[in-house]
Amino acid sequence: MSKMRIYQIAREMNVSVVKLLEMLKEVGIEKAGNFSTIEADEYEVIRELFAQPANQPAPAESSGNGRQPQPAAPAPERQPTGVPRPPVVAVLGHVDHGKTTLLDAIRQSQVALKETGGITQSIGAYQVAYQGKAITFIDTPGHRAFTGMRARGAQVTDMVVLVVAADDAVMEQTREAIAHARAAEVPIIVAINKIDVLGADVQRVKEQLAKEELVPEDWGGDTIVVPLSARTHEGIDSLLEMILLEAEMLDLRADPNAVAQGTVIESYLDPARGPIASVIIRDGTLHQREVILAGAAQGRIRALLNDQGQRVNEAPPSSTVQLLGLSQVPPVGAPLEVLSSPARARQIAQQRANEARRGRLERSRRTLAQILSDTAQSGALKLLLKADSSGSLEALESELERLKSEQIKLKLLYSGVGDISESDVILASSAPGSVVIGFRVKSDAGARALAEREGVTVRPYEVIYQIADDVKRALRSLLEPEYEEEIIGQVEVRQIFKIPRVGTIAGCYVRDGVVKRQAEVRLLRAGAELFRGQIASLKRYEEDVRAVEKNKECGIKLRGFDDIREGDQMEIVLVREVQRI
After folding, report:
1. Domain tally for the chain?
2. Mean pLDDT score of the chain, rounded to an integer?
3. What is the pTM of this model?
């Protein structure tokens, strides 16, 4: 037989991919996922497994008393919480590679609710049905709130479909979309579009994807790659099938009876209807007339509109709706919460507004090193770099690469050439605590305003080594300090002076090295350490001194210790902090 995929065998055996992988693991066949290949001998093992009658116990040996042993009661299986919910998918990619055409093609062929026209641009999302299962798509291009923010949808999605044209290449915006998806830590399915046009080269695109660490599964990697044509609809069914299989692996669940939780994916001010927000429901069910809170916006829902513009009374998990009734336009990406009373919602909204104002003031006063130190407590400094040229960018990346350590990871979210854009700010905001660093580039007005709203730190530099120095200081502040000791002097106690209201003064002779006032002292008696601490005073004759050299006498008073005897030895120790970076 030719090699088969796990998901193909699962379909043949009429069992879920997850269940099949569990069974294979029990018999010692380890497979990575639903796109792993099966050899002929492994396939025969699977056929034998499914040939056994279900729930039939193996023959048991007779016990000595002639009675068959009773089978042990099966251990109860842990049931996953909630019920399966539709996957939420964001479609990202370069502006000319056919994202909108692909979404239109999916919508025309697999619409869940009948309608005419193309993608509903006013709500930013819609749902389709395939094989009796729903899939929610977030359409990121072409939206007012998503201008320059191609991957904002990746914050609320379960997976990303990355569209790359077969007659083009992996472009800068493609790499940007990959960075957004990775920052959101969601699976990536690649759709190689335009396979029907002149000059299409699927293998070349796969080579470029592999360079971006998206190795296709037919090349031994774990990235799902689906060649298709949005114009002719070839391959669209395969793409939808892959999305559902990935969703099955993720085991997406939600509780429709729970209090609703969601995320704002688009918002704007309508002159006639007031503030409007498009939200996607992640868990629970949102109902009309409920009191909601999103960022510093609050209110009671006056109306819920689905992606057809129709009024609905509720929104279940993984659905998207527009809602009316908020006090102001909420920020894109803000969590949606349901509260018990309007008064409580107003109180929290006011607190958030005040905190946001204080935060903006504090951020304006802090250095980059301070910001990085505070935002890297997770053990990783998260940076986004923009430079004026590829040469500058390469030099900056090389300089920062030398600062990495095993203890603290320096995570580069994205690096590129050109001015700092709104898209850069959005990517930084999707990874909390990230800092955007610009080297000899500018920030456009939209990016500056967005950074202010999102609380993203953007810092411009003109000298490359100032960036490295600030990052180095931040890294040092996060590492546990290491110290090394150097014995710089050997002292012999030859006489003891007890002075009232002062304590014990040791008359000493410096046998080797030097005694320094700021150094530590280790007091030894018969080779055993009795005391380790600081020098309270160091005198030569009647004068206070900073240091006493070899072959000279001095008087030493130890801080907090008077049990000194003639014949004791002192080691003078200088402790230095070791720079680990």
Report:
1. 5
2. 80
3. 0.60
Which tokens hold the place of 528? 């055993």
Same domain, 36 and 102: no
Cβ proximity of 368 and 470 under 8 Å: yes
Specify whether 496 is located in the same domain as 375: no
CATH number at residue 501: 2.40.30.10
Q: How far apart, in whole angstroms, are the C-alpha atoms of residue 327 and residue 318?
A: 25
Residue 388 belongs to a domain: yes
pLDDT over 80 at 425, yes or no: yes
Same domain, 356 and 371: no
User: Are 315 and 459 in a shared domain?
Assistant: no
The residue among 544, 550, 486 whose CA lies nearest residue 515 is 550
Same domain membership, residue 242 and residue 128 = yes
Q: How many residues does the chain have?
A: 581
Amino acid 278 reads S
pLDDT at 371 exceeding the cut of 70: no
* Collapsed DSSP state (helix, strand, coil) of residue 227: strand
Answer positive or negative: Cα dihedral of 226, 230, 232, 238. Answer: positive
Give tens-digit pLDDT for 185-216: 788 999 999 999 999 999 999 999 999 989 98
Exposed / middle / buried, residue 41 (Cβ in 10 Å: 0-12, 13-18, 19+):
exposed
